[in-house]
Amino acid sequence: MSVLLLADHDAGVLSLATAQLVHAVAELGPIDLLVIGDDTAAIAQSASTIAGVAKVLIANGFSAADGVVNVLSTLVVRYHYVVASAGSVGKDVMPRLAAKLDLMPVTDVIKILGPTRFERPIYAGNAVQTVSDNQPRHILTLRASAFRAAAGGNTAPIEVLAGSALSLANLLTSHRTQSDTPDLATAQIVIGGGIALGSAENFQLIKNLAKKLGAAVGATRAAVDAGYAPNDWQIGQTGKIIAPDLYIAIGISGALQHLAGIQGAKKIVAINTDAEAPLVKLADIALIDDLFEIIPQLTAELDRLGVRR
Amino acid sequence: MKILVAIKRVVDHNVRIRVRPDGTGVETTGMRLSMNPFCKRAVEAAVQLAEAGQGDEIVVVSIGPKSAIDVILTALAMGVHRGILVETDENLETLAIAKLLVKILDEEQPDLVLLGKQAVDDDSNHVGQMLAALTNRPQATFASEIRLIGQGIEVTREIDSGRESLALPLPAIVTSDLRLNTPRNAALPMVMKARSKPLAIRPVAEFGVDLSPRLIIEKISPPAERVAGRTVSSVAELAAFIAGDVSQMEAL
Ligand SMILES: Cc1cc2nc3c(=O)[nH]c(=O)nc-3n(C[C@H](O)[C@H](O)[C@H](O)COP(=O)(O)OP(=O)(O)OC[C@H]3O[C@@H](n4cnc5c(N)ncnc54)[C@H](O)[C@@H]3O)c2cc1C
Ligand SMILES: Nc1ncnc2c1ncn2[C@@H]1O[C@H](COP(=O)(O)O)[C@@H](O)[C@H]1O
Predict the structure, then answer these.
(1) What is the pLDDT of residue B250?
(2) Which domains does chain A show, CATH number per domain?
(3) What pTM did the predictor assign?
(4) ipTM value of the model?
(5) At a CB cut-off of 8 Å and minimum separation 6, what does B26 contact?
């Protein structure tokens, strides 16, 4: 049994999700890691250090879904599993690959029960399916945040594939959200802000607190729709899935679709004026008060306690 | 330009579902069902293109039981011209849905196919990408903006690092994200008019597609329960909790 894993990277940097996936699928067989994109040298270099990687493959070129699938489908005969993280690339590419191979993919896997048995959430995480996949080849996407990262220290060989990824689609522009906070999907602490923040300027309150705690910043769909936060900060069923040690939810009601994204959080703190808000009911610790009074006090109190990361 | 929109009828997104205690599935009887919210954006986008003179005919297709006529009527009331129900009482896998849609595409030959990015019941996020693979068309998933430019389209997509815009030649497949638009509520006259628009009901067997499932759903369980927490009454207590948690983290 062997595994082809599509590496997740962004802006020339390998994302932590890749190491998490390597660890998650280590039991399934030897792992070859495929890096597709432009400027892949540094990414491939760090990929080769992940413990458990047998070989790193590089395919150069712009990588819209059809191009990535063309590359993957030439390699796939050699593998029993083709795996990607359930981020925006994996979601875009893997169902396309599966259909091309006449296979059903198993996506958003949160637990690997065995070589052919997986758990995946449905209905915004309000139910969990146990799926058995007896097809000749398995096409999977995994929620990286559900798994611990593999260690480093490896020096796997790197091989550049001939040809390049070609797509019918052309990239026109990309608008990256500039942020100096950690990556939301893999952060140890996340602070989320809701529509109650009232403006993009007021989100600075959350950012300040996040800076102190070395936390990533997230938001509800309502806050994103209102223009208070960029779209890639959205946490939930249709946003990012987080699994931090600590999630601090500020002025967030806790709609079903938001809760879908935070089920993996170990501890949850809620600050809300409404004691009946679903997120308050769910939280390990809740403080019922006005966020505009509480956040500055909390920031000062954490300072006084010497908390800084 | 001809636009085809695929829509699914699902348990309404505001309803809290219940997992059947025997593990056989999710209780949907007696629950409110409606058009998948992402599909509704896809319909709205098609209608807006037509209103801007960029779409001549819009056809919707839904695959499901007879009761899925509901959501087709909703789409017709929103301004779609014609509906097709591919009737089946089976709960089909996404690959089977995509294969049925290929047959509809063969018949209809649309320039643009719009789908929702995901159905909020199975949360698969597959069908658009699968349909693109099976028809060898380019795809743009998670669209928050669609512009028709000459012989092609430009689509802004919501991705993990922010947004990107792609240019695609037609015919193409696009799946909608929530921020694509705000779907209209059809006015009563439109709702009345919808009933007189053409709606073809066709049994799934007519299409000759192998619909047998590839995966086995062993069981469906409720998610793990969280332990109940407590409320604190001061910032000092809250800060102490956070500080305690953070110091444990560093100890790891
Ligand atoms: C198909 C679909 C998908 C969706 N996907 C997502 C998703 O991925 N992620 C997501 O987040 N949402 C998603 N939503 C939207 C979701 O249903 C909710 O509308 C949204 O999460 C609510 O955001 P909110 O908590 O900021 O706002 P609200 O629900 O309005 O809650 C605001 C909260 O702030 C509190 N508050 C107000 N003032 C203060 C104050 N001064 N101090 C402290 N607390 C205060 C209120 O008591 C309230 O609890 C989706 C919806 C649909 C239909
Ligand atoms: N039964 C169906 N009938 C028509 N369209 C469907 C059906 N199932 C899925 N789709 C389309 O595919 C999209 C993605 O669904 P899914 O891949 O199931 O998450 C939906 O938003 C619909 O546009």
Answers:
(1) 63
(2) 3-160 (3.40.50.620), 189-304 (3.40.50.1220)
(3) 0.96
(4) 0.96
(5) A122, A123, A127, B11, B17, B18, B19, B20, B121, B220
